[in-house]
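A further point concerns the way the authors explain their paired sequence and structure data. The central task, working out the structure tokens from the amino acid sequence alone, is never made concrete. I therefore recommend that a typical entry be quoted early in the introduction. An entry of this sort, consisting of the sequence and the corresponding backbone structure tokens, reads as follows:
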Amino acid sequence: MLAHRPAALAGALALALALTACGSSSDDADASGGSGDKGGTRVFTADNGKVTIPVRPERVVATGYAVPALIEGDAPLVGISSWQRGEPMLSDEDLATYKKLTKVAGESAAETNYEAIAEAEPDLIVLGVPTPVLGDIDMDRLKSIAPVVAVGPTVPSQWREVSRRHADAAGVLAGYEADKAAYEAKAAQLKKKYRDVLSGLEFGHIGSYGDTSKGTFQREFGGSWGTSVAQDVGATYYGKVKKAGPGSQSVSEYPSVEELSDSLGEADAITYSVNPDGSVPESVKYAMASKLWKNLPAVKDGRTFPIAYTEAATYQDALKTLDAIDTSFAPLLDR
């Protein structure tokens, strides 16, 4: 429901949002929504304000970032938006569920099918989109169908907190906590495994959202799509955005390819985003085809590392990212 392209990142994620903690003011529910009678309600603090929602939702519609979080959490979904970019990260079972569920919206917020949502008869609608995108949605119309909880990210690394809040709203926190524990255990194991070889290295990252038609590449810094999981393993990404803006503009920028040396010339190592099948996106190929790329110290030293699944939006997704990082960093142990 959120298009992940430079224009969308500059528009939807570029604006700062206030992510606030969830809570309950209902006598029938605790903060996790795990107690109270079946028909109880609680107050959930979302990006669109405080919303009274069921303690135990029975028919949930999810869009955007909420789609993978709630499929993986086994929420009682009756309709979802399209989430094509996340399909390769879903397990076979979850992918089958995704394909089977009724699609009530497309890849963008503007592609919301209100009639289909109404026909699904939800008792909760979870919109996984940033606040700026909500302007493309008829909120009053949605609210006339069911309570609406909107929770979206400000910067990419907030997928951790955003997915927790989605799971909380839908009453499936138990699955989230289990996935979080599995991820943290694996990340800690890899951090220990690569501690010595990563120590002292300063990384740069090339993301997949460069625009070849404009002659640009995407440089990602700490806290962005391609870096946040690698940081959990112990990789250190140096530098900062030259002209920081709100949201994602604070963690990534789009220099011209002629600026490769200025942007990444001080990197001891470079990671770069690849597709789930390992192929290199055209936007990354464009940067790597430059003569300037070949002269970068990290490239000359053979310290370039592809990373797949850099668009992880849940802990289950990010487990795949950890596997990809482990495979990519393994040659460092033989140096």
Remarks:
- The mean pLDDT is 89.
- DSSP finds 14 helices and twelve strands in the chain.
- The CA atoms of residues 152 and 162 lie 6 Å apart.
- The first strand starts at residue 41 and ends at 46.
